[in-house]
Amino acid sequence: MDVFSPFKIKSLNFRNRFIRSATHDWMGNEDGSISERQLNMFKELAKGEVGLIVSGHSCVEFPRGRAGLKQNRIDDDRFIEGYKKLADVIHENNSLFAIQISHAGLQTNKDFTNNLDPIDHNTMDKEDINTLVEAFTKAAVRVRLSGADAVCVHMAHGYFLCRTLFSDSNKREDEFGKSIANRSKIALKLIDSIRKALGEDYPIFVKLNSTGGTGEGNISTEELVGVATLLEEHGVDLIEISGGAVGSKENPIDRLNILKIEDEGYFLERAKVVRKNTNTALSVVGGIRSLSLMNEIIGKGFADFISLSRPFIREPDLVIRLKSGQEKVSCISCSKCRNFEGIRCVFNK
Ligand SMILES: Cc1cc2nc3c(=O)[nH]c(=O)nc-3n(C[C@H](O)[C@H](O)[C@H](O)COP(=O)(O)O)c2cc1C
Ligand code: SF4
């Protein structure tokens, strides 16, 4: 078994173990809808035989849920049409498609929220929580209506749900704070609500932080396993292990200069812990660069999928290249592709 072998989750047939992890591209139209540029970029990825392509994070509430400019939105039915086109172009080229839905929570600023105060997970009341659960659920229904194969709920990188889950960022004293079970309540409430709205057969994926809510410092293994186990019990079909937060010094999401194999897979040890303690399908992201490591991860069963972000910016046809004998991605993990005019590898013409 290697990274090119197929896999199945519910009725989804994956042609290989590659996931293009969610990547905000600064390419959306000003109104938050899908642009022609995005259709072209996703078409290239699907033609490049990526097993599952996850969209960049799309906000479930506007404007307070928005984390960045030119971010796609999924807070209204009018955005379904663009996603339908995206789903079609990906399916025509035989890849699977998931849409990542997110709420920025505190990790945004007034430039993005039309000057409104960001939502604070520590002070919101029950009614606010129910409103957000409803916003996520309606967004998930739009994901299914657009023809995407799965919904991916963003619980990583310091955004709203991520901060509710972990002890370093959740400071609530009520029924939504203190214990692992309490801190997981908002996330589980919305997973249950999405499940009810989409039905038993529809795949629900989660991108989960393994390093706490703010990315500074590390949460305990007990905490990570506790959350992952609850997600599994509530029927999440795939957990993608990530970590860090935007701007974190100690735990960057996209670490720089991953050039030696020893530096690769910087969340792999966390993923192994989750694998040992759960039965959910699992992916791992973060600096995986060598085909040998990818095959080791799949072959030894440390995870079922390999998620990559930056390597697919430099080489959208990476899967075909690796299949043809290339041993390593060409991306040097400099992150200079974070370009507000649209992601672009600085080494590509
Ligand atoms: C330009 C850029 C945009 C990103 N946008 C998202 C996003 O929308 N959602 C998300 O979960 N992660 C996002 N990430 C994080 C990546 O999905 C991934 O977790 C991280 O880059 C580590 O993987 P890599 O080393 O393969 O790039 C982004 C990363 C980059 C470089
Ligand atoms: S700019 Fe190019 S080489 Fe640098 S991280 Fe981005 S894709 Fe990789």
UniProtKB/TrEMBL annotation:
Its EC number is 1.6.99.1. Keywords: Flavoprotein, Oxidoreductase. The keyword Iron does not apply. GO terms for molecular function: FMN binding; NADPH dehydrogenase activity. Pfam families: Oxidored_FMN. It comes from the Bacteria. The keyword Thylakoid does not apply. SUPFAM superfamilies: FMN-linked oxidoreductases. Residues 3-327 form the NADH:flavin oxidoreductase/NADH oxidase N-terminal domain. CDD domains: OYE_like_FMN_family (cd02803). PANTHER family: BINDING OXIDOREDUCTASE, PUTATIVE (AFU_ORTHOLOGUE AFUA_2G08260)-RELATED. This is NADPH dehydrogenase.
